Amino acid sequence: YIQGNQSYADCVWYLENIKSSFAWGERNKLPFNTRTIDHAQRAIKNKSYNRLPRYLNISDPQWGLVLGYFLAEGYITTSGKKDNKKISGIGFAFHINEKEYHRELILAIKNVIGVNGKVYEINETNGCQVIFNNIGLGQIFSNLIACGFDKKYINYINPNAITEMLRCLFNGDGCFFIDNDKAVLSLKLENLQLLYQVRQIILTYGYVANINKNELKLSGLSAHEFAQILGCKFIEGNKSKKFNTTYSYIESGYVWLRILN
What is the DSSP-derived secondary structure letter of residue 258? Predict the structure, then answer.
């Protein structure tokens, strides 16, 4: 995918893969006008085209990572006047201390899609945004997953990428805690369709999750085992301690708090 019209994208591909220089008069025989050829040659020389790979490796676990974080924390960014907004890319909302998530997300999108991201801190808050400015990328996610916290859905996920997708979805919107010596793994969403999709996926692992209103929950041994599949860890030595359910989850020796609003 190269941002621009189809003729321009085809011309860039032709110049890169078939022939890049021409004898006198040869350019007139190409199925592109002179202006398009000049524009494409200049873009290739300066590497100024805004491009994405023609094909995505959806079996790559890193693609699952990107999908999981987008389902939990992602949104479509726009630019322009209020009454004429246009897609400009995608963004993710995180806590400022979730630096591990920032790093792995930026690396994954760079490796799988080839677009660079940047972290922007939100003044006087503990929040930040990870922004990827690429119109094509925004269009892909808008069409593939939809936008809006209550409208996102899992269009298709390759089996090799499922676990990473779930891990990152639970990282964003999940809770993992101990309540009266019983492990509880919970996912709260305002999107009922997505909750039922996640429940169906968890069934393929052999675990049955319950859904009550806007919460999906696993309890007891099932929660413990599935949390281990997702890479969550209990704090050693505190397994019998009761944690308040306002905690988000426990991972890597830390208790992470849910971000409000």
Answer: P
